[in-house]
Amino acid sequence: MRTLGYMALALQVSGAVPPEGGVGGGLLRLVLRSSPVAQFVLLILALFSVVSWGVTLYKLWTFHRAGRQSAAFLDVFRKSNRFSEVQAVCKSLGDSTLVGIFQAGYAELNTQLRQAGGGGAADATTAHPTLRSVQALDRALLRASAFEVGKLEDRVPFLATTASITPFIGLFGTVWGIINAFDSIGQTASTSLAVVAPGIAEALIATAAGLFAAIPAVYFYNRLAQQVKVFATEMDDFSLEFLNIAERNFS
Amino acid sequence: MEAVTAVLLDRQSAGHRLRPMVVCSLAAHALAAVAIVFGPARWMPAAGSRAPRVVMSVSLGGSGGPANGGVNPLGGRPVQQVATAAPKRPQPMRPPAAKAPLMTVPAPKTPSRARRTPPPNEPAFGSDEAIGRTPTTGPEEKPGSSFADTGVSGLGLGLATGGAGTGGAMDVGSFCCPDYLATMARRIKENWNFHQRVVATTVMRFTILRNGQITDIAVEQSAGYVLDLAAQRALQMLRQLPPLPAAYPNPALTVYLKFDYIR
Question: What is the distance in angstroms between the Cα of A98 and the nearest Cα belonging to chain B?
């Protein structure tokens, strides 16, 4: 007897052919159908996300420029013999934090020398002018340093706020949605999945949005805080260097 | 004003570029939202909720019967019989209670002084025959070997539920029309060249429209190009089946058909 071909078939009884168009529209539909409170929560979360991303981009861009220009400024500063030369470069490297410190130190130095030598320029080599107070110069550098750190840290706390608040806002939206879902269970008096599931699904969107806003904010907050710390170290280093040079040349 | 303060104030007023960055971020968010809403369904597993795959498999040709694969022969499907209620035991007719005569002379009441004697304390024994014998249990029940004719005619093919690993198993009895499946399988097999000198399995997917047209033929699980081609050709050459039976409610029937090549 010949072997018979063996064939097996499996059927998919397709209840409804899934609609091919409007694919991610499910999410949109879910959002549009949800309650005003949930929509408001989503709106707030969207605002937080937009602004925190804006801050992130702004700070990253600023820090990038500051780092680059600081490197260029240090290059000029270490090669040059005269502070006036360095001061001339400062205009084009305005984004560097070190420029701020240098300008403050230079201004203080100029004031002191002018008072001492009667209008003598800060260029060291001309008449051997002397510093009246190194402490005053140090204080000026400290002021500038604190100012620059403040400028660097500007708006970074918003990221920390976003990171800590948005999960809670999302959670609030979810809890609200689940309250509504249970309410609808109570009203229809049926616990079928068809009654419960849409409410819970639209409630969970809020949590997802909260996490969506919070996770990048946490990451970039840590990263930017670390960068601020690096800049602060660099500025301390530079102000000590500046102080040394000033003390060596003008006293 | 002090010179240092002037410098710091000057640096304070350096332009903020925050606003363009926020606008930039807003644009990126809008882009992401548009991508999520209008993107392909593959990105959103939740959105394109598929109809649950109810899978059953039908085997043709007799191999893969109950002995080697859990396939129930259709003709011998277990049929649940309605349990018949146990017949009522006839109750003996009792004669009506005798009526008291309508008018009687009232008898003088005599207080009954007779007391019942208390029961004796000795245990009651049964009759002599009952002592020391095993009790009888009635007729013993054994599984019989006789076959009940259920009236279901065999189709020469077996139906089995389950398989394919996608979860839901479908009770064969709940699919309306096994006859239609039998016809379909027979028609496809007529066009199918299954002598390929290899043992392999191709799974094809296709959809039968209401008018019986076969569309959306696709290879679901490949077994090599030649074998896929043979299976595909069988479906393409057939192209038309009888229209779907009226008892089947849905507009289309998607079939996962397993072609098992046997040497």
Answer: 12
